[in-house]
Amino acid sequence: MHPNFDLEPAATAMAAVVGAMADEQLTAPTPCTDTTVRDLLAHVIMLTEAFRQAATKEAVGRSVGPETVLPDDCEAWRGPADWDGATEAGGVSAPAVVMAMIALNETVVHSWDLALATGQRPAADPSHLAVLLEFLSDTPAEGTPGMFGSVVPVPDAAPELDRVIGLTGRDPGWTR
Fold it and tell me: Cα 128–134–139 angle (5° rounding)?
């Protein structure tokens, strides 16, 4: 596992994608089945708070609600305590380092989803892709219930981002 990786490049990439969106794109479809850009943005905002609370351990013993308002300080996964022990997000308990990898996966993959849905070029930090390829390497062919669908086969020689996307049940060739 890769403890203490920096989530900031993934968050910055997500912010750039969201910042480049136009209001009229909110109703556009995304690679997530039956999900519009607006729906996916709402999901991402909810996850932002859920994973912030996971880092601070505020979520242990309770799940974040779907109508979350982000606090002024959303910083998380920066201090050593954020990476230690067990935590919870969305009713799922896991070691904090695993929860951080799930947060990274959600950020990178949903940045890709939103970029493609809005006609942007998706990008991801190469070090994050290495972490995610290792993290997702044991994904069963049928996918991970509640997280993503069946693995989409992608050649080993394909770009790392395409391989990550395939492991999360998405077709790297998806177009809007």
Answer: 120
